[in-house]
Design a protein that fits this description.
Blueprint lengths: L2 E6 L4 H12 L6 E8 L2 E8 L2 H8 L8 E7 L14 E2 L5 E6 L5 H10 L10 H12 L5 H11 L4 E7 L6 E6 L4 E4 L4 E4 L11 E4 L4 E6 L2 E6 L10 E2 L15 H7 L1 H9 L3 E2 L4 E2 L8 H6 L2 E6 L1 H18 L3 E5 H4 L10 E7 L5 H12 L3 E6 L5 H5 L2 E4 L12 H19 L5 H12 L1 H9 L2 H11 L4 E6 L3 H16 L2 E6 L16 E6 L5 H13 L3 E7 L11 E5 L7 H19 L18
The structure holds 6-O-phosphono-alpha-D-glucopyranose.
């Protein structure tokens, strides 16, 4: 899940590469490096830490060259130090490459290469690729052939870009399991693991598929399969704006993304609500509509925040569509040999569309004959491409590592799917219309919920030094409790647990004392009375309660330490509103604790390793 950028053209490559890397820093940020070709020589610079550390390290050194590659790393093999940072090279720095992914058979290859006299400088799997190409190139005249033959030897995943002294005017790129796009400019070309890295220069992209590679020079590019078949790739135009991925005046991307939610929720619904018929339309499912509608069982598979959205999906699809739904972490689903039949629908939810476990889970489901649909944010991502059909959530680029707007859009998209399926079952047109009306009101209600910000800041100030938090919710608000706890953990490094409120009695209650803040989502729904009892159980043990309540709820005001009033909606839509103050709470606590909100330690935005 590292970030890669490559450039070949007439301009100086270094600033283009560095700026591209900065846009990719969300993919990993424990070390970074750059390599440039000039006058037949390749210079390599790398440093531990963020891109700014690399820039500082390079300082005034001359970094000339119009062909180059760069990398920001999130370590898998080998400690994140300067040596293990990319780019990596062969014996004489003739072949230099950056790589995202994991080479599973690297140890066997490395032993073989050592036995042939290669000396390795790093602990990485990536260095093996450079030496392997070097070795194969000894017995062939064609560098391209050596490159291709080496790819055939690699097990595992790679998105890689390479420069070589043997052919100084070329960039080589290859993809298997890790995303790679080629940006086509005017007499110049870019390669990146994400289009946003090169969007400042071009909107025309070629998406490499797994098992494909490209050879690029100043005159153009050739794309082939690793079986050596030339393939014509279509150039696709990216439509999102660069300024949408800037901070737009907010201190952090996360805060900007929290505040974007009235719009992103609306964007997710745009053109999809059929008011008169009381139904939702999801065009991306048209090819698989029959299978979606007749599905006898639905599996939802995802990781992290997307998994929490999936839990909400389960509750709503079972309640309204009466179809059995199972939600499973993709990492479990892919390995446990689940019972999947060909009349089952598997929904893979992923913001990035690149999460390795989710991708593998959907492949497993396909292999077993299920219809697979994606609920994805990043257009053109691997999951979006490999599913039989899907729904984009249209949240726009999410840069903050802790997912916020993607979550509310995922739940919105699930709600659309829910109405669409339910209307073919028992839901009446009248009920459908009421739901559509209520969904239309969601952006305003989210806007209202954002007004809790000032109060939430006060609460954050009071509780910022606590070491543990408990989050409780029931029904549709239980996954919200899980998500609220996850947000706090991710960015403030405070231990937090989400629990179904009643289940608290079977364990967490033992932890409650005056030092334990308990965040309870207690909006007025069918479980309201029950959750009041749970709150009393906490209060009886001197726990501090912060309750997210329905606007106008006077009763709870007297029972708890703080109430955060938010608008209410239909139960199955409530999480879209309830999560807002919890996102803000995590954000403000993290800021007050001096944490790096957008790039929390050890995490990465897109986890493309298992
Ligand atoms: C990482 C991110 C989370 C995200 C999860 C799943 O852990 O830090 O924010 O929820 O991956 O990612 P996906 O892109 O598949 O939704």
């Amino acid at each position: 899940m590292c970030g890669i950028v490559g450039y070949i053209g007439q301009r100086e490559a270094y600033p283009i590469l560095i700026n591209g890397l900065k846009r990719l820093e969300y993919r990993g940020y424990d070390s970074a490096g750059v390599a440039l070709t000039k006058n037949g020589h390749i210079s390599i610079e790398k440093q531990v830490g963020k891109i700014s550390a690399l820039e500082k390290w390079i300082g005034d050194k001359s970094m000339d060259g119009t062909v180059g590659i760069a990398h920001t790393r999130w370590a898998t093999h080998g400690e994140p130090n300067q040596t293990n940072a990319h780019p990596h090279s062969d014996t004489n720095n003739d072949i230099v490459l950056v790589h995202n992914g994991i080479i599973e058979n690297y140890d066997t290859l490395r032993q073989m290469l050592i036995s042939k006299g290669h000396v390795f400088r790093t602990e990485t799997d990536t260095e093996t690729i450079a030496h392997l190409i070097e070795e194969i190139y000894k017995s062939t005249d064609s560098f391209e052939e050596a490159f291709r033959a080496a790819l055939l030897e690699l097990d595992g995943t790679y998105g890689l870009v390479l420069i070589t002294r043997h052919e100084p005017g070329k960039l080589y790129a290859a993809r298997k399991g890790s995303p790679l796009v080629i940006g086509v400019g005017d007499g110049e070309y870019f390669v990146a693991s994400d289009a946003s890295a090169v969007l400042a220069h071009t909107r025309d992209m070629i998406y490499l598929e797994d098992g494909e590679f490209a050879v690029i020079d100043l005159n153009g590019y050739v794309t082939k399969t690793i079986q050596n078949k030339v393939i014509e790739k279509q150039v696709e135009r990216v439509t999102f704006d660069l300024e949408r991925i800037e901070k737009a005046g907010y201190d952090h991307f996360m805060l900007k993304e929290i505040y974007e939610q009235p719009r992103t929720v609306a964007d997710c619904m745009r053109g999809r609500l059929m008011e008169e018929e009381g139904v939702a339309r999801l065009g991306g499912l048209s090819d698989i509509m029959h299978n979606v509608m007749r599905a006898r069982k639905i599996f939802i598979t995802a990781c992290g925040t997307s998994y929490h959205a999936g839990l909400i999906g389960e509750y709503m699809l079972e309640e309204y569509c009466r179809i059995p739904v199972e939600v499973e972490y993709a990492s479990e689903f892919r390995y446990r040999d689940p019972i999947i039949q060909d009349d089952n629908l598997v929904i893979a939810i992923s913001q990035s569309g690149e999460t390795a476990d989710t991708l593998a889970a959907l492949r497993e489901a396909k292999r077993k004959g299920a219809t697979v649909m994606g609920l994805v944010n990043v257009v053109g991502s691997s999951i979006a491409r490999e599913t039989d059909g899907g729904t984009y959530i249209h949240a726009g680029p999410e840069i903050g590592v802790a997912s916020t707007k993607a979550f509310t859009s995922q739940v919105t998209a699930l709600a659309l799917l829910n109405v669409m399926i339910a209307r073919t079952k028992t839901m009446s047109a009248e009920q459908g219309r009421r739901i559509i009306q209520e969904m239309k009101a969601l952006p305003d209600k989210v806007e209202q919920a954002l007004k809790s910000d000032v109060l939430v800041q006060e609460i954050a100030e009071e509780f910022k030094n606590k070491t543990n938090f408990l989050y409780l919710g029931r029904g549709y608000n239980f996954p919200v409790a899980l998500e609220g706890a996850l947000k706090l953990k991710e960015i403030s490094y405070i231990h937090a647990e989400g629990y179904p409120a009643a289940e608290m009695k079977h364990g967490p209650i033992a932890l409650i004392d005056e030092d334990m803040p308990v965040v309870v989502i207690a909006t007025k729904d069918s479980t309201y009375e029950k959750i009041i009892s749970n709150i009393q159980e906490v209060k009886a043990r001197k726990g501090r309660v912060i309750a997210v309540v329905s606007e106008g709820d006077e009763k709870l005001k007297h029972e708890v330490d703080y109430t955060i009033p938010i608008p209410t909606t239909f139960n199955f839509l409530q999480p879209i509103i309830s999560i807002i103050p919890l996102q803000l709470l995590a954000y403000h606590i993290a800021v007050l604790r001096g944490c790096n909100v957008d790039q929390p330690r050890n995490l990465a935005k897109s986890v493309t390793v298992e």
